[in-house]
Design a protein that fits this description.
With 410 residues, the protein is α/β, with parallel strands linked by helices. It is 38% helix and 19% strand. It is built from 16 helices and 14 strands. A nine-stranded mixed β-sheet has the order 7-8-6-5-4-3-2-1-9, sandwiched between helices. A three-stranded antiparallel β-sheet has the order 10-11-12, with no helix packed on it. Strands 13-14 form a two-stranded antiparallel sheet. α3 packs parallel to α4. The protein is globular and about 55 Å long. The two termini are 34 Å apart.
Amino acid sequence: MPSALPDGEPVPDDGTLPASALTGAADRPLGFYLHVPYCATRCGYCDFNTYTATELRGTGGVLASRDNYAGTLTDEIRLARKVLGDDPREVRTVFVGGGTPTLLGASDLVRMLRAIRDEFGLAPDAEVTTEANPESVDPAYLAALRAGGFNRISFGMQSARQHVLKVLDRTHTPGRPERCVAEARAAGFEHVNLDLIYGTPGESDDDWRASLDAALGAGPDHVSAYALIVEEGTRLARRIRRGEVPMTDDDVHADRYLIADEVMSAAGYDWYEVSNWATSPAARCLHNELYWRGADWWGAGPGAHSHVGGVRWWNVKHPGAYAAALAGGRSPGAGRELLSEEDRRVERILLELRLRDGVPLSLLRPAGLEASRRALSEGLLDRAPYDDGRAVLTLRGRLLADAVVRDLVD
């Protein structure tokens, strides 16, 4: 089931932000994340804020229905316009995620995008992405998205092997994501991503290489590869606890990552974030870079998180409660926190160290600087950028990124 929300102070009913949040806003890019919380089935590894029809039955009535969802989310976009007032920024990135956004009709996704365009305007070179399940789109659907303003799409592939997909409870058939790439290209999408997962119980090195070869052979210009994280409360966690499937250890994850970097580098894909590779700077996911660089984004939808000018807040999780709040003229915010300068410094290190450009050494305290020198001597940081004042992970450093970050934030 979905994980719990953090604690925080109450969000005002009208969603008002402290005046400090908009200070200097014109100098920061603004993005929108639109969360679609519906799935046809729940994957065994998933603890995202998503709901199947069975899980929603009797818990939200008509308010939780996906039939009304585009209109409800549009109400939050209008609320965002009121809260941000005369903020002059056009929206630089839009990312529709889930859940399975493509369970909604293409016209619903286009309607939500239109609301952003009407209320804020889109930058001329705005990146507009949706996630998609390979089995929930066809050429006509993709053409409607492209005609409606979407220019980037991300398909959940996970694996090319049927037995691996079965462990993950994925319902698409091998080969379908690759065909989706071709269909998206035919519809006019310039930028196409495939998501992969490595380290699934029962997956072999050969399985992983086959998945990489299949993904790259399809010709996307971006690939994301994530280590499987087994979250408590998921079906997969219960299966592992009962001994039905084995737990994959960290050494296997490291080996699979090295294989991924080797194969993708040889094919002309460069890493720009620890889990992301692209064929060119233009193919990078600008919306995710906005997160990693601490810019501003409004997250609309149940359980969505937002950040504007050092204020972070999150919405109520259940679609029924979310819709009820907006129908009553209230912000759906469940809680928020005001980040201190130290909070923001630490978050910059946590996030920017994962990027190819790394993080300025000037952000580090004395203990962190000492830790960076140790990391350099151990081959975890790259010498050339270090001499220019930046901490940048080597390939070995990427394998140990979490440990390096913990030392540098001291």
